[in-house]
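Lecture notes, part 5. Sequence design as translation. It can be helpful to think of inverse folding as translation between two languages: the language of shapes and the language of residues. The source text, in C-alpha cells, appears below.
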C-alpha cells in the first residue's frame, strides 16, 4: 500500500471539509505505482485546491496531489505552444511565456490554478465571448486511466475522451501532462475602460453592445441594491495594449513580468458577524460611488488577478466558510432570470461583496463544460447556517425555470436531480466514463453528490 497521510481537506470555500487520504507523488514513477495499489480506490486528483466546493475532495477515497508534478517539458516561443505537467500553475506559465510575447489564452480570476485543474474545470475568463474557455486552447493531454494505461487525447485523437476530460472534473482519468496553445500579446499591459451602469438593464445592454469592441469584459455588481438601482454595476472593458501606447519607460520592456503587489495576508478567520448586510452594503455603496468613468493602462496582474494580492482572503468569511454560486442564463432568459436571482439574494440579505457578471460566447464540444452563450453571475455567499439551504433551493428553482445552470467548479450544494436537469449531456459523459473507468475508480465527493457515478 502506498503511504499517505490522513488529513482534513476542503476547497477554497472551506465549506465541505472531509478527512481524506492524501498522497503527493514526487515523480512520474511514484505516480504510476499508485495505479497498481488496489487500496487507492476512489481516487481524485487535486491541484491548487482553488475550486470552491468538494470537487477535489474524497472522504471515502484517496486524493492525489499534483503540486510536485510541475515540470515544463517544452516551450516553442515561435508558435506559443507549451507542454507541461499538470501541476504547473498558470502563474508558472506566465513567467515563462510572457517575456517571449505570449500570454494565457484565457484565465480565471486567480493565477494560482494548476493546468490539470484548468482543464478539468474548463475554466473561462473575461474573454469567453471572443476566445471561449480553456479547453478550446488545449492541443492534447496525456491521461493515466484507471487500469494504469496511458491514453493520448486531443480534438483529433480519442476526441470523445478528450472532450469528456475537458470540464470532466477529473473523473475520466489523471491528467499527467498537456500541450497548450498560448495567445500572442503586444505587451503585459491592458487598456481598461471603467463605466458605471445604473442598473441591470444598463449593464446587460453595455456588455452586448461592446462585445465586438473589447476582448475582455467584466462587471462588479452590487447584489444588495434594490428598486430602480437593482443590479447597478461597475463595468471594466479592456484590450491588450500595444507597445506604442505605453509610456517611454514601459515601452523599453513591454513584456515585463511584474512582481505581484502583495497586501498583508488575512492572518485569522474573521468573526461571522463581520460580513453582514449592513457592512457589505456600506462597502458596495462606497465602491460604486467612488468609481468614475475613465480609461487607464494597468499591468496584467491588476486587471486579471486583483484578489491574488491578498493571501488567504477566503478567511474573511470566517470558520464556517462560504459558497460561490455561479449562475448562467441563456440570452433569451437572462434579464428576467438575473433580476429574480438578485431580488432573491437581496431579500435574504445574503451579503456578497464579491459579485461578478460576464458575457459568454458559444459552447465547446465538452458534454460537461459549463458555459454557453448568455450571461453568467457569480456570487460569494457566506455560510448562513440553517438559512443557506432554503436560499440555495430558491436560486436553483429560478435557474431551472429559466433554463440556466450552475458551474461545477464553484458548486457546493447541487443535488443529483438538479444537476441532471441542468446538464442534458450527462448520460453522454457517463457512457464515456463507463468505457474507460467501469469501476468508477476516479470519484470525488462532488461526483457522488451530483450523481456522476454508477
Amino acid at each position: 500500500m502506498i503511504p499517505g497521510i490522513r488529513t482534513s481537506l476542503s476547497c477554497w470555500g472551506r465549506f465541505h471539509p472531509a478527512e481524506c487520504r492524501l498522497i503527493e507523488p514526487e515523480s512520474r514513477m511514484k505516480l504510476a505505482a499508485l495505479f497498481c495499489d488496489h487500496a487507492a480506490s476512489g481516487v481524485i486528483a487535486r491541484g491548487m485546491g482553488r475550486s470552491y466546493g468538494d470537487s477535489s475532495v474524497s472522504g471515502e477515497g484517496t486524493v492525489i496531489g499534483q503540486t510536485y508534478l510541475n515540470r515544463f517539458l517544452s516551450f516553442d516561443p515561435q508558435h506559443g505552444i507549451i507542454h507541461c505537467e499538470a501541476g504547473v500553475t498558470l502563474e508558472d506559465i506566465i513567467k515563462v511565456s510572457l517575456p517571449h510575447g505570449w500570454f494565457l489564452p484565457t484565465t480565471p480570476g486567480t493565477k494560482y490554478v494548476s493546468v490539470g485543474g484548468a482543464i478539468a474545470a474548463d475554466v473561462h475568463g473575461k474573454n469567453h465571448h471572443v476566445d471561449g474557455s480553456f479547453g478550446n486552447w488545449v492541443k492534447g493531454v496525456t491521461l493515466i486511466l484507471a487500469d494504469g494505461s496511458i491514453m493520448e487525447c486531443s480534438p483529433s485523437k480519442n476526441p470523445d475522451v478528450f472532450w469528456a476530460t475537458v470540464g470532466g472534473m477529473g473523473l475520466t482519468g489523471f491528467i499527467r501532462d498537456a500541450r497548450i496553445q498560448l495567445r500572442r500579446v503586444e505587451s503585459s499591459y491592458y487598456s481598461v475602460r471603467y463605466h458605471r451602469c445604473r442598473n441591470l438593464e444598463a449593464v446587460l445592454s453595455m456588455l452586448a453592445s461592446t462585445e465586438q469592441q473589447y476582448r475582455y469584459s467584466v462587471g462588479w455588481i452590487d447584489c444588495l441594491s434594490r428598486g430602480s438601482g437593482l443590479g447597478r454595476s461597475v463595468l471594466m472593458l479592456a484590450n491588450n495594449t500595444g507597445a506604442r501606447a505605453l509610456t517611454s519607460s514601459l515601452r523599453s520592456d513591454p513584456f515585463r513580468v511584474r512582481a505581484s503587489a502583495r497586501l498583508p495576508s488575512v492572518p485569522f478567520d474573521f468573526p461571522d458577524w463581520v460580513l453582514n448586510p449592513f457592512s457589505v452594503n456600506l462597502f458596495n455603496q462606497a465602491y460604486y460611488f467612488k468609481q468614475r468613468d475613465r480609461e487607464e493602462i494597468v499591468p496584467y496582474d491588476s486587471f486579471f488577478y486583483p484578489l491574488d494580492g491578498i493571501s488567504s482572503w477566503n478567511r474573511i468569511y470566517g470558520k464556517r466558510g462560504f459558497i460561490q454560486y455561479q449562475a448562467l442564463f441563456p440570452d433569451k432568459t437572462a434579464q428576467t432570470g438575473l433580476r429574480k436571482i438578485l431580488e432573491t439574494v437581496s431579500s435574504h440579505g445574503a451579503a456578497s461583496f464579491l459579485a461578478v457578471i460576464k458575457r459568454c460566447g458559444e459552447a465547446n464540444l465538452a458534454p460537461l463544460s459549463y458555459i454557453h452563450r448568455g450571461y453568467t453571475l457569480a456570487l460569494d455567499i457566506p455560510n448562513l447556517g440553517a438559512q443557506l439551504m432554503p436560499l440555495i433551493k430558491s436560486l436553483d428553482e429560478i435557474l431551472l425555470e429559466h433554463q440556466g445552470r450552475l458551474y461545477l467548479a464553484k458548486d457546493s450544494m447541487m443535488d443529483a436531480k438538479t444537476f441532471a436537469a441542468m446538464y442534458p449531456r450527462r448520460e453522454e459523459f457517463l457512457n464515456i466514463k463507463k468505457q474507460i473507468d467501469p469501476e468508477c475508480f476516479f470519484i470525488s465527493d462532488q461526483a457522488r453528490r451530483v450523481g456522476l457515478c454508477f
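The translated text above is only one of many valid answers, since several sequences can fold into similar shapes. The chain has two domains: 72-185, 190-414.
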